[in-house]
Amino acid sequence: MTVLQDRKGFVLLLLCTGLLLAFAASLVFGQTPITMEQAAQSFLSYNDDSTEHIVVRSDRLPRAVIASVTGASLAVAGALMQALTRNPLASPSIFGINQGAIFTVVIGVVFFSASSLLSLMGLAFAGAAVAAVIVYFLGSIGRDGLTPVKIVLAGAAISALFQSYTQGILVLDEAGLQDVLFWLAGSVSGRTLEMLLPLLPFIITALAASLLIGRAVNLLVTGDDIAKGMGQHVAALKAFMGVLIVFLAGSSVAVIGAVGFIGLVIPHIARFFAGNDYRWLLPYAALLGAVLLTAADVVARLLIMPQEVPIGVMTAIIGGPFFVFIARKGVSSV
Asked: How many CB atoms lie within 10 A of CB 136?
């Protein structure tokens, strides 16, 4: 057991190193060439006459921080979703979070002329939360309470409903499409730390709480009857996990838009290293999600310079084939 824990701890250390490397790459790679020395000097002795220092502090640092935080949040939310629904293909979008966020943003832009990023962020978070609450409520109706099948069906129905409403509104007002294109594709370009700060306390609290319930989640995935027999308050734990998912995924969507596949792909990669022990799987997922989204942002800005590929497109390129692989393999354990 000690050897196994030492190995897992070593992999965790490697993931931390990988995150540091991805973060450093995010600071130096881009349309404006910047050396590691210049990036370091922008923090140690900032010079507002230096173009490189301004680029690092005003653009690349916020992008790296936001990509790391939201990547970790989406990955942990996905791991909790798969445990909650006992469905290996589950991800935050199954709660209708992405679609609910986009729908409220479209409503705000088209009917209320909302334009500021902060107001759009508020609308996105509210829509994500409302969609998740509706799905959880519908999935809990009935004699058996919340079941994997019911919540999957409820999530699919609500997602399709919000998506059809969104498309209908955009067809009536094509001009609004340009204003919400960012939310449809997902991106960290143009994001600032001021946009993340209002949500950061919620994200940090939700991440910390998620890491602390690993043992309880281990018991939950063995089955409701066994968990109840061991004295666990199953309904309360499921509700708490739902709240954590809303805060983690809802906050991420509010900041960077609809970025898919992180919540689906990362938990499976984490499971490959950590097994099904959520005490290790959740921190692995957080680090892997941060590394993947930060690295995806670096590739997105280099691929077709001087323009950028939306980061949501990059994650889809990575996650799409992985989704097909999981579906064909028929993974059943979470």
From this structure: 22
The pLDDT tens digits of the residues spanning 81-140 come to 999 888 887 888 777 888 898 899 889 888 887 777 778 778 888 898 899 889 888 888
Range of the domain at 179: 2-329
Q: Which residues contact 299 (CB under 8 A, 6 or more apart)?
A: 309, 314
- For residue 137, the model assigns a pLDDT of 87
Which of the 8 DSSP states describes residue 58? I
Residue at 282 is within a domain: yes
Residue 36 counted as domain residue? yes
CATH number, domain at 210?
1.10.3470.10
Is 155 part of any domain?
A: yes
Q: Evaluate whether 115 touches 179 at the Cβ level (below 8 Å).
A: yes
294 with 64: CB under 8 angstroms?
A: yes
Q: What is the pTM of this model?
A: 0.90
Give me the pLDDT at residue 331, please. 52
